[in-house]
Amino acid sequence: MTFDNIIHKSPLNSDIPSKLHSVASGNSKENNQTLSLVFIDDDKSIDKDIVEDCSPILSKDKLLNGREFFDIEDLNYALPSDKLEADRGFLSHVLNKHVWKGNFHSPIAERLKNGGTKVLDIGCSSGNWIIDMALEYPSSTFIGIDVDSSFFPSNDKCPPN
């Protein structure tokens, strides 16, 4: 598997060349999205997608050197919360997948294939890894959470597990 194959086969991003250019050049458009937390649960008694608006709690008001950060006193989150950071996270995901020759290097593949395994990714950023894993192992359940969900893909792009 080559680096190009990994990038072009990604189900999450159709505009990969522009994302890679944006990360490489440092160019990013301003992002004024409403911040929300998305919880996905496989329990049939709960609505599939529950969206809770948290914009009054988590606001992106602080600009430092042209980068957007959360302006919350007690939040120990040092990374920017802008599109350039989301693009950097995606590039990191692609490079790690290439280096590891897959999404992980651990002896759990059989358990994931058999199903019933639940995986929690805390600090999942834009959800690239957790969605790749859910697509690769549809019999297991994958949950991703992050303090900044503004770059999560829309629910129609997320697998049901």
Principal-axis shape: elongated
Number of helices: 5
In spatial order, strands of the major sheet run 1-2
Largest sheet: 2 strands, antiparallel
Structural class: alpha+beta
Rg (C-alpha, Å)? 16 Å
Q: How confident overall, as mean pLDDT?
A: 71
Structurally, the number of domains stands at 1
Quote the beta fraction.
Answer: 15-25%
Poorly predicted spans: 1-56
Helix and strand pattern: HHEEEEHHEHE
Intertermini distance = 26 Å
Q: What's the total number of strands?
A: 6
Q: Tell me roughly what share of residues is in helical segments.
A: 25-40%
Structure, explained:
The chain is an alpha+beta fold and 161 residues long. It has five helices and six strands, in the order ααββββααβαβ. The radius of gyration is 16 Å and the shape is elongated. The two termini are 26 Å apart.
Q: How do you describe this structure in short?
A:
This protein is α+β, with helices and mostly antiparallel strands. The protein has five helices and six strands; from the N terminus they run ααββββααβαβ.
Jot down its keywords.
alpha+beta; two-stranded antiparallel sheet; 6 strands; 30% helix; elongated; transferase; methyltransferase; S-adenosyl-L-methionine; tRNA (guanine(46)-N7)-methyltransferase activity
Topology:
Elements: H1 3-8, H2 16-25, E1 36-40, E2 49-53, E3 62-64, E4 67-69, H3 83-100, H4 109-114, E5 118-122, H5 128-136, E6 141-145
Parallel strand pairs: 5-6
Antiparallel strand pairs: 1-2, 3-4
